Each structure stands twice: as C-alpha cells, then as structure tokens.
Amino acid sequence: MTEATKFKAYAVLNAGEKLQPWEYEPAPLQVNEIEIRVTHNGLCHTDIHMRDNDWGVTQFPLVAGHEVVGVVTEVGEKVTHLQKGDRVGVGWIRNSCRTCDHCLQGEENICRQGYTGLIVGNYGGFADRLRVNADFTYKIPDALDSASAAPLLCAGITVYTPLRTYIKHPGTKVGVMGIGGLGHLAIKFARAMGAEVTAFSTSADKEAQAKEFGAHHYQKWGTAEEMKAVTGTLDLVVSTVSAETDWDVAFSLLANNGVLCFVGIPVSSLNVPLIPLIFGQKSVVGSVVGGRRFMREMLEFAAINQIKPMIETMPLSQVNEAMDKVAANKARYRIVLLSE
Ligand code: NAP
C-alpha cells in the first residue's frame, strides 16, 4: 500500500460549471488495483454531457476523463500481469460483476448487475494520478503512440463494437452519421473491415477529410427529399450524433434487413414507423462502449491496421477551452489533453 497523498485533479463542482483545480485523497491502493501517472486524456463529448448533467446521473464533484493513457507507478500485491513502467489505458468501464452470462462472454458493457463506470462516484483521468482495478486496464500496443491510443479507449471501442457486430461481409453498406470524435473513427474502422462507407455530416467542410478517413461517399445531412438518392440503401447506419435531429430520416436510409444503431446519446426519443420496420425486417438498436473482449481485439486491430484518430493536443490546464471547442463542433476530430 502506498502512502496516501492527494491527487491533483480538475473537477466540476456543480452542473454546467467550468472545471477547476481540485484535490482529493485517494482510497488506499487495493490488492487488485494499480496506480497510474496520467499522461494523456482524450476528450469525449460524454464529458460535456456529464459536466452539464444532461442525463441526470452525474455525481459531483465530477472528475471526468475516460480515455486515459498513463504509466503504471504502483501495483497492488495481487496484480500479476502488469508492472511499474507499463503503458496502459483506461476506458469508461471500471469494474463489473464478472459472474453474469454477459460478463462471462466478455460483454461487461451490458453486465446484468450494471458495470461500475465513471458515473457512480469514481474519479476519472483529468488528474495527475488515478487508481483503478487492474483487470479493467489495457496494455497499449507498441505500434500505437499514447496520444493516438487515448481516443480509442472510448470513441474507438464504442464504434468498433457495433461495426464488428453488424458488418457481416465485405461490401456491407455502412452509413456513419456525425463526423466527430466517434464518427471519424467509425469511418476508419468500417473501411478497414471492408465496408462501403457513406459519411453523413451537417458540416460542409468535412467532406474532403471524411474521404481521407476512408469514406467512399459523402452526403450532406438534410431532409428525406434532399437525401432521396441514399434512401433505403444502407445495411447499417451508426449514429454518433450528440444532438437532436430528424431520426425518421435516419431510419429511412435503411435497406431491408438494415440496422440503425445509436451510439450518440442526445436526450431524445424515437417514433419508429412499424410498417417499414416490419415489412423491411429492419432493426433499431443501441450500443454502449464495449466489453473487455472487444476492447483488446480493437486495440490489436487498430495497431495492425494503423487506425489512429486525427487529433489536436492541448494541455490539461486548458480543459475548459477544449470543452468549449468540442461543444461548438470545432474540434478536428478529437482533442487529446496532455498532462503537464
Ligand atoms: P463530437 O466529437 O462532438 O461529435 C458529434 C458529432 O455530431 C459532431 O461532430 C457533428 O457531426 C454531429 N452533430 C452535432 N450536433 C448536431 C446536430 N444538431 N445535428 C446533427 N448532427 C450534429 O462527439 P463524440 O465525442 O464523437 O460523441 C458523440 C456522442 O456519442 C455523444 O452524445 C457522446 O455522449 C456519445 N457517446 C456514446 C458512447 C456509447 O457508449 N454509446 C460512448 C462515447 C460517446 P457533423 O459536423 O459531421 O454533423
């Protein structure tokens, strides 16, 4: 057990407020935990939803940050697979029951007892150090630099999971809605999986880069009439959109047997038209991050295929400016916060 010294963090004290320097006394290092010196944090739009308590679940003080890469500095006595100096990543999920059928299949993201995540009073990566259960940390492959690896730990796994699940064969027609942190990685992963990819964006200036990421086609997001050329053509549509839009139009993009998968989490609801749903055998599904099985696989897949996010870096001390940039849809395409 290490001597407890305070961890220096950035915290939100009340909903909607800016983050401010804040310190906390960590609990003693448990036998199955490691301590990490944080070096990099990807900034996810979820950190903004959480700051603003958009989903009504945030506990304050909130130390956000769930795309964390750092170096192991302390190792609990029962941890055998990691040692000091290892470069590891931490994502959204911090623990699970490990005994339910989903956990036993590596789907801790849908643990029947509910996984332990950032939203239940755990402190995240916007800090100099972090103590976490070692079983929910991931060695970063040598082929991935830390700044590129950080966004994979949430954005990467969140899009990898539905793409890996629903792309059944090369040539599957995939639409990606919203070309932000998640969306640009979805284009890269889908392309690497052999899909024919259409990028849907409200931002006209993203066309060239969407194609550089691997999209075969770019479609400016619009009304059903404006997008009628693609209506009824896609086998899988993944929505990474963080705000309200016309979901009826998203549904209308599906071909028969098509799947509309939501990973973006606006506070919204759907009114699915049953006639086309039934007669076209279509599905509307959701997907949340991913379990440990897909996390390990995704990191390996990214390393082998050199799938890296396009990032801009800022110091962690500028986390508020960085959040404003993401909220204004001005990040291109993931901000990675560097610890000083
Ligand atoms: P982001 O970088 O801000 O990207 C979101 C994109 O959505 C924007 O770049 C924009 O793309 C599009 N968009 C924004 N406002 C829009 C509007 N009013 N109408 C249509 N499109 C709009 O955010 P992110 O970090 O990728 O996260 C995206 C969402 O996924 C967030 O809601 C986040 O909480 C959620 N998320 C879910 C999971 C999960 O497990 N399910 C995990 C991580 C994140 P264009 O400019 O191309 O239109």
Percent strand equals: 25-35%
Instruction: Give the CA-based shape.
Output: globular
Radius of gyration: 20 Å
Calculate the mean pLDDT score and round it: 96
Which range best describes the helical content: under 10%, 10-25%, 25-40%, 40-55%, 55-70% or over 70%?
10-25%
Q: How many beta-strand elements?
A: 15
Derived structural class:
alpha/beta
Order of helices and strands: EEEHEEHEEHHEHEHEEHEHEHEHE
Number of separate helices = 10
Q: Compounds present? A: NADP nicotinamide-adenine-dinucleotide phosphate
Family: Belongs to the zinc-containing alcohol dehydrogenase family.
Organism: Planktothricoides raciborskii GIHE-MW2
Cofactor: Zn(2+)
Keywords: Metal-binding, NADP, Oxidoreductase, Zinc
